[in-house]
Amino acid sequence: MIEPAAQLTLSLTVNGVPVTRTVPARKHLVDFLREDLGLTGAHLGCEHGVCGACTVRVNGEVVRGCLMLAVQADGARVETVEGLSDTGEIADLQREFHERNALQCGFCTPGMLIAAAELLAQGGTPAREDIRAHMASNYCRCTGYQAIVDAVEATLRARAGGKR
Ligand code: FES
Ligand code: FES
Known about the structure:
Elements: E1 7-14, E2 17-24, H1 29-36, E3 55-58, E4 61-64, E5 77-79, H2 81-87, H3 91-99, H4 109-122, H5 128-135, H6 146-159
Parallel strand pairs: 1-5
Antiparallel strand pairs: 1-2, 3-4, 3-5
The structure holds FE2/S2 (inorganic) cluster (FES) (2 copies).
One FE2/S2 (inorganic) cluster binds near residues 104, 105, 106 and 142.
């Protein structure tokens, strides 16, 4: 006989909203966000921590949602691309992505935006190679990365007071 999966209750804050749910103990954070909370911005690609499609922030740290169990986020502050978008934190970055065609299918885009937001939070105007290095753990199968780096660079420059 197959034993039912153990269920655990977690309480956390997701995009500023307190949430309590009971989930299978082995459910991953990205599946919890998508299936239990309807936050489908974080995507599921490789499921092995390689592609970055599932990127979210937990207590301010950028993490792979496919490598973390939902119950490990008990008590944490989780932010998804929906939350970053709603607060306006990445409005300028989103505009640059749009204007520079830095997305095609869009599958990688939420993860790219969260990865880029981490770099933007550091401030300054890093060199293109440094932008590429920072974004290197997020994969895109469509764009060739050039436009993504352009968009991130333009946002960094604008925030630093330079021209777009
Ligand atoms: S789905 Fe998590 S890194 Fe690819
Ligand atoms: S836009 Fe399609 S994977 Fe990046």
